[in-house]
Design a protein that fits this description.
The complex is a heterodimer of chains A (288) and B (249). Chain A has a single domain, classed as ABC transporter involved in vitamin B12 uptake, BtuC, CATH 1.10.3470. Chain A is an all-alpha fold and 288 residues long. Chain A is globular. Helices cover 77% and strands 2% of the residues of chain A. Chain B has one domain: P-loop containing nucleotide triphosphate hydrolases (Rossmann fold, 3-Layer(aba) Sandwich). Chain B has 249 residues and is of the alpha/beta class. Helices cover 34% and strands 24% of the residues of chain B. Chain B is globular and about 50 Å long. In chain B, strand 7, helix 7 and strand 8 form a beta-alpha-beta unit. Classes of the chains: A mainly alpha (288), B alpha/beta (249). Chains A and B meet through helix 6, helix 7 and helix 8 of A and helix 2, strand 6, helix 3 and helix 4 of B.
Amino acid sequence: MDFYLTALLQGLCFSALALGIYISMKIFNIPDITTDGSYTLGGVVTAILLTHHQPGYIILPAVILAGGLAGALTGLIHTKLKINALLAGILVMTALYSVNLSLMGRSNLPLINVSSLFSVIIISGDPNHNTFWILAIFVVIITGIIGYVLKTDFGIAMRATGNSESMIRSLGVNTDRMKIIGLALANALTAVSGYLISQFQGFTDISMGIGIVIVGLGSVIIAETLINWFRITTVWLSLILVLAGAVIFQLVLAVTLDIGVDANLLKLVTAAFVLVIVSLPRIMVRAR
Amino acid sequence: MIVLQNLHKAFNPGKANQVNAVNGVSLEVEEGEFVVIVGANGSGKTTLLDMVAGSVLPTSGGILVDSDDVTKLPDYRRSRWIARVFQNPVSGTASDLSILDNFRLAAIRTKPKGLSIGINEDFKKQVKERISTLGMGLESKIDQPMGTLSGGQRQALTLLMSVMDTCKILLLDEPTAALDPRSAALVMRTADKLIKDYRLTAILITHNLKDAYNYGNRLILMGEGLIVKDIDAAGKSILRQNDLFDWFG
């Protein structure tokens, strides 16, 4: 059972990442691969500041800022230099690998004897329950903020930017600036996931971000399938389904491990699982 | 209201595939004028309109709007004066957003889009009232995504959206080209009514010579990137519909 609880906790850690991918992919319609780099960057910044015994109220803003900068850089390259968004993301992601490595000074930084988010705040005596409640509160706050932003005039303009660029420009919105802000926001959220995971697993590793974008994509695609299924149009429900997507994704991985699939095959299983979810709606339409 | 000074626009300048879309257009449009521009495909009408809107910047020449030099201003900064209706209904509205969200953005066209929630009951009521003037029964559907509506409904709503915020200039780029005859007639009537009610300065591009004859108080024929004929209100009133067809003969 602990096994599934861990999966649930990981899912909660990844919900910020899922929200970030939801913003870049679904709201802005930009395939952003910066994720792999900004996620690790979040973990790296967390590990360095934690091992230097910086207080929590400095670490989280620093993580958000670092992720935001990475995203803004991708946005700048994409909009100002007119580079394809996919390539812009890959460039920044690749560059971030070196940045992360030189920031850490080595490829792995353990966080065993430092006080993390989960050891400083005590809500419940049981460490797993304690972690769950901290993550739950964290996720509720993040979702609340994003949900509110999307409901504001600025948020509507954001949603319109990915939908009809000609329209929103004629309504007085600088779409380049909007995309840069959007990618900054998405990668800030991604970095927050790196921040949570590092503290949850107790170390930051230079390779922790490899292929992480698929976790976000998978979560968003699960959410999208559900959104289309139930014809959901409200912002709040969509966001909640994205969170559910992140948790479902981790639970499915836990099941595959539980039934004895080799852990080395996990990325293959992940990719296959995402493929199934993506193609499921189409296969079902054809079957009808 | 709008002054164009010797505007030129060349696409791909200096290359083998250089296209001189507009070759020296000077034009003054007075406040309250409703200018209709006709011309064959490739005559430079749309490029000219895009330069007024700011989505295409001229190679040379100047553009004044309301006595301000806007030649180098991008489109999103000209929205202070200018509202647009596009040929393709998809370009003028956001399909995945609700009708209400679309109207909210239109209502703050000239204002900054801040971090406060602007949609409240008052705003909903106002939008419903506006939409009910179309007589299409859409006022009960304001929470539906724009994409669920037909092209004609979307164009009519785009027109309404343009006057949600202060608007001086309305640019219409073949707004009825993608529509069936009935929807097209409704959209043109709506446009004409709004232009009169709100005393807008308007420029309409159309291939429909009947519309060109029936609407507007100034008629311009373009060809080869130049103004070929410029007929004022008095001249337009004595023009016969067949004269227009002869221009294209």
